[in-house]
Automatic annotation (TrEMBL), chains A, B:
Protein known as: Metal-dependent carboxypeptidase
GO biological process, one term: proteolysis
Keyword annotations from UniProtKB, A to Z: Carboxypeptidase, Hydrolase, Metal-binding, Metalloprotease, Protease, Zinc
Catalytic residues identified in the record: E266
InterPro entries with a match to the protein in the record: Peptidase_M32_Taq
Source organism, top-level taxon: Bacteria
Biological role stated in the UniProt entry: Broad specificity carboxypetidase that releases amino acids sequentially from the C-terminus, including neutral, aromatic, polar and basic residues.
Similarity-based family: Belongs to the peptidase M32 family.
Pfam families: Peptidase_M32
Organism ancestry: Bacteria, Pseudomonadati, Pseudomonadota, Gammaproteobacteria, Alteromonadales
GO terms assigned for molecular function: metallocarboxypeptidase activity; zinc ion binding
Cofactor note: Binds 1 zinc ion per subunit.
Cofactor: Zn(2+)
Name of the top EC class for this enzyme: hydrolase
Amino acid sequence: MNQPTNKNYQLLCSHFQSISHFEHLSALGDWDQAAMMPIGGGEARGAAMAELAKHIHSLKTAPMLEQTIAAAELEALTAQQQANLREIRYQYQQANIVPGSLVEAKTKAAYKCEQAWREQRSQNDWQGFRPNLENVLALAKEEAQIRAEALNISPYDALLDKFEPGMTSTRLEHIFGGLKSWLPGLIEQIQEKQRHQDRFQIPHASSDAQALLSRDVMTLLQFDFNHGRLDTSSHPFCGGVASDVRLTTRYDEADFTSGLMGVVHETGHAKYEQGLPLKWRGQPAGVARSMAIHESQSLFCEMQLGRGSAFLKQLQPMLQQRLDCNLSHEQLLNIYSRVTPGHIRVDADEVTYPCHILLRFEAEKALVGNQLAVADLPDFWSAQMQSLLGINTDGDYKNGCMQDIHWAVGEMGYFPSYTLGAMYAAQFRVAMEQQLGSMESLVASGHLSSVTGWLEHNIWSKGSLLTTDELVQQATGETLNPEYFKKHLLQRYGA
Amino acid sequence: MNQPTNKNYQLLCSHFQSISHFEHLSALGDWDQAAMMPIGGGEARGAAMAELAKHIHSLKTAPMLEQTIAAAELEALTAQQQANLREIRYQYQQANIVPGSLVEAKTKAAYKCEQAWREQRSQNDWQGFRPNLENVLALAKEEAQIRAEALNISPYDALLDKFEPGMTSTRLEHIFGGLKSWLPGLIEQIQEKQRHQDRFQIPHASSDAQALLSRDVMTLLQFDFNHGRLDTSSHPFCGGVASDVRLTTRYDEADFTSGLMGVVHETGHAKYEQGLPLKWRGQPAGVARSMAIHESQSLFCEMQLGRGSAFLKQLQPMLQQRLDCNLSHEQLLNIYSRVTPGHIRVDADEVTYPCHILLRFEAEKALVGNQLAVADLPDFWSAQMQSLLGINTDGDYKNGCMQDIHWAVGEMGYFPSYTLGAMYAAQFRVAMEQQLGSMESLVASGHLSSVTGWLEHNIWSKGSLLTTDELVQQATGETLNPEYFKKHLLQRYGA
């Protein structure tokens, strides 16, 4: 029998295919615990997920990998195979930095903290939440320290790198510093401009009716229900695997408008997953590029497309049919372009949203860098909210530092991805319009698939075959340029 | 540091605890694919579940087990620890018989066959189903052959043994032969007696209303919703893990009565799982004893308790409230004691039910023993149905040999457990009543918890600490005695 000329590479592919099977189960366990699992099932689930995380880690650090990767690097591979091998080496290196026992401990602590957080948040129970968060943070810091030493970067940068490979706090400070120089002024200016706008009564809408509406909107966005589903959870997310994407949302019967855009947002994530290259399923080159690129797709969908006039025009009859809602197109446009400083990040408009991220970025840096204790987080939060958005959160933990799931599950370093994503989304739109003409005109003339087609061709189908910089360079002609986001906000909201 | 005197035993406990974590994920994957997963997710899920099955198998056959078990058998252990060690050795032996590659191939084939079966069944598509079933059966036969050689028993007995350790086809032929001698006569006699009974209009009931009713009934039966949930699936089952039991049912809006007893049945399974000994969670001694004992608990709940007059009296106001159903207690009693030969096993009354099992037992034996080809199964089915229940199923595959999920997923040898379960249930009732007095009086006087308490004490809390024969002997004073089942049917239905 002939040996293939790239047998080491083939061996790696088969090994990482196995890993992807266990990651499939991990994604299922995460989705289930958030969307389905009764509280009493949490302890056993946490133990099972920790065992699984440890197992995946042991597969990613299998002793044979070092020399098999080295041997594969000498084999004759296509450009795409080389890209896959690059991602394989990256995953191997990342996993090797952290001991399996820490991976297991982190998973257990995260499960415990999150399970309790769900109830504690609704009870505004900061004192109950704090020790769990301290526990999770201690483990995140332990990981940060280990990664920092291995990569010779700062502990916080070592966490950023997990979600956005190559991103540094210095670069973020530069990007966010730019934002800080003009965003507060713009917010003030828009608020002044919108002060005298009419406010509309949002009609009551049952959860059942909103669920039907959500399916309609997902269908409009070409979500493939043969490869995914929609459920509810206390913290909306997009999970599952590319062949079976699990979205969740939540419904506020007194105000459907936020949940509706939540579904549009999560559908953006889902379309990215469903559009990942079929040929590379189960391989490291076949997964989504980074969290910032993932958020760019959800925010493209929600902010660039979803809050545009043409898309809202298509929603209007659906609202009428499903919710018996008589808001006019102009009223919808008005509602979805309102800029209102608020407590809750996920409910924020796109102009005040970056302020929520600035706060979290500063808090994370300080927590990981030992300049801020968990006990002092609520005061830090309130002071920052006051300074950035004029909001006091003293004593209101539920709508303050307890509102998000990320820290409860130990994901320190994730938040900047949201604002980077908003910036990439603006940049993608400009590039797309240079090729296809105005997105508004395309949507208005029934050519939404030209828009999704561009995203599929330039982003989704690339998986991780390119680095983030290569991906953005090929799609837009340059790497990340925050100016497009500024131009977008000025154009949509400016005086 | 002092070494524990039973360190080999402790090592085994820790190893099997790990295995139970992966089995937790396996149970979750199974439940999800039946109750939640969109069809398009099936291929990736099947691959993930096959990988997981292979991994669990590799853990159960780890090379260190042979000598660790042998060493543990020389250690000073309590009686319960000895029982756990016995179950550990049993699981190890069972796993060692079958190669991991066959476990993986079986899982893949079962997933493929089941996924397709769901659609094929509704389309009555026998020609589409047949090659998949042949494939699944070929693998089941391969397993049977390997097990038969290792255990020095017949291939079909080797499959029976998986679900009901120690059960043989000879013993079953004796038990079922007994049934055959009197059951057809009884069915005829009851039909004659019931020929002139009134028939009642069953009111239409929406799925939503039935779902609320189901929760009420589960609550009445003390199902713990903090450790479980209820959903719908095309084939009702009880899955999940002891700390998070996942029931499913299906609702027929034109006739709620079958779905309602389906929920009572599955709740019987669930109570067994929820009542397993907390102290032994994650250990082989802590799981349910056997499938026949499992079915004894569901059938106790559905047939002994659920169709009794006192329980139906408690259901009656719930039906009124949730379904606006005005059937009287007498009418309910009448409906739930009707004996009507029908096509569908899961909808069968308790008198004709064993006929469905007799048929499947004969078919399984013949299929595994190469006396029957899959291609000839429909004719075999129709002939047997004709002879046992006077029903012709020619061409009606959907309500014939395609109705059940078991063979589609390769579970040959499971069906006899149902009728063994019905026999155990009757036997348990007699023993319980000898200690507590009439179950009907207990339920009528609001002492349902005395009934569940007896089951918990004698069955649920024993897990697998006793063998099946020991369990039944301790609970009832003798091993399986089919006479109690006969007496029960004669007493409830006899002339």
